[in-house]
Known about the structure:
By secondary structure, the chain is mainly α. The protein has helices at residues 2-21, 25-47, 54-57, 64-78, 81-89, 91-113, 120-143, 159-191. The longest helix is centred in the C-terminal third of the chain and has 33 residues, at 159-191.
Amino acid sequence: MKRIGLIAGLVLLPLGWLAAAQAGMVGHMAGHMIAVAVAAPLIAFGLAGSAYDPARRWPHIVSPLAMSLVELATVWGWHLPALRMLADSNIAAMIVEQAMFLAAGWLLWAAVLGAGPDRRAAGVGALLLTSMHMTLLGALIGLAPRPLYPAMAHGMHDALDDQQLGGVVMLLVGAASYFLGGLALLATLLRHPEPTT
């Protein structure tokens, strides 16, 4: 099962990179959500417990809440208009941006999936916090009264319509992925409570 998750995550990566390279906010957002919220958890699941699992190698650094903050800074930072425009106009910046999204997502999901029984509650908190900030950013982008990224408008939509659709993609994929992951981890915590000392 882990091998299938790893292969699926790796197969999705080129699709995310292609989507992110497309014109418009919808393509940009789809590419990022494929990397951070779909491919990253699959890759983290596929590598969990292996020699390539960062949570196993560096458990004091790759902790759920710390990696949630890394993911938050990455997602919000790359959605600042100046950085967003840099990535949209420069292929090298877009590659760095997409790689950072993948790395931040992978580290967070690895921290959560690699968390031992004593860290499951922190994993639930980290995933639900991430879902909340993804929801907030998606709503801010989707409900903004003016285009935040006017140069990104896709040919089929004006800049505001494209931005609104991009916000919806973030809400549907990003926020849902972390929320459902948090609920699934909470369910395992409730089924198998942490041992009391």
